[in-house]
Design a protein that fits this description.
Elements: H1 2-31, H2 33-47, H3 51-56, H4 58-121, E1 126-128, E2 131-133, H5 135-196, H6 201-222, H7 230-235, H8 246-251
Antiparallel strand pairs: 1-2
Helix pairs in contact: 1-2, 4-5, 4-6, 5-6
Length: 255
């Protein structure tokens, strides 16, 4: 039992000393500017690729750059697929909206012509599309179709805007992929150069410069396209139409 007590006491003493050192170090970190600067520099040297770290282990640094660039390429490939899928959906929505705008506009025009003819001669009801419509029914149908045309026209405009945004995003992805491939080729070249020569200042500068290029590629891969989702397009397409505006519609479509 005495041996166990001695071991326990020794362990407690060690823990106590470590606690004192930790607390003392924390206090000294905030109290001493030189000490804090040295600690921050040591952390930076151990956790980031500084020019000094690159010079010490250029091969490992090239491996790191290659790994990050390859990850970015995979992300860009996924983004490319997502853009293509969204484009296909938007093109389908655009086609449907265009068809409804065309059909609705034609229906409104035909009904207005029917209304003008019947109203001038006071001959009701009228026959249209295998339907028999009285005066009020023609009015309500024109207003209803006009509302639907407005909704579909708004959706059509948003689809066209979304497709333009996707085209811009696609171009950005293509550029980022080209940059990544250039970086991979440069990594391969620099790796071969290291095999046949020491780390000269020129080569060191190239490796340091590569760091910002890799960061730019990774940033491009993770960038949000900012293109609204298809659900957003649908939700934003509601247009308020006054159902009592038949006379205005009629006035805007003179003979």
């Amino acid at each position: 039992m005495s041996v166990l007590r001695r071991k326990g006491a020794a362990t407690s003493a060690i823990v106590g000393v470590l606690a004192v050192l930790v607390v003392g170090g924390a206090i000294w970190y905030f109290a001493s500017d030189p000490f804090r600067t040295r600690v921050n520099d040591a952390v930076k040297q151990g956790t980031t690729w500084t020019p000094e770290q690159i010079a010490k282990d250029p091969v490992m640094y090239l491996n790191y750059c290659e790994e990050e660039t390859t990850k970015a390429l995979e992300t860009l490939k996924a983004s490319k697929i997502a853009v293509a899928q969204n484009r296909a959906k938007l093109e389908t929505m655009r086609g449907d909206a265009q068809a409804q705008v065309t059909a609705g506009s034609t229906a409104v025009k035909d009904l207005l012509e029917k209304y003008k003819t019947a109203d001038s001669s006071n001959v009701w009801p009228v026959s249209w599309n295998n339907l028999t419509l009285d005066k009020d029914k023609v009015k309500s149908t024109v207003v209803s179709y006009s509302k639907q045309v407005s909704i579909q026209q708004t959706l059509l405009n948003k689809c066209q805007s979304g497709l333009k945004s996707l085209d811009a995003q696609d171009s950005k992805i293509d550029q980022a992929q080209a940059d990544a491939q250039t970086q991979l080729a440069e990594i391969k070249t620099n790796r071969e150069l290291l095999k046949v020569q020491n780390l000269t200042n020129d080569l060191k500068d190239k490796l340091v410069t590569m760091q910002s290029a890799v960061r730019a590629t990774v940033g491009a891969a993770s960038e949000n396209s900012g293109v609204p989702s298809l659900e957003d397009l649908k939700n934003q397409s509601t247009v308020q139409v006054d159902n009592t505006e038949f006379d205005k519609i009629l006035a805007s479509n003179p003979k």
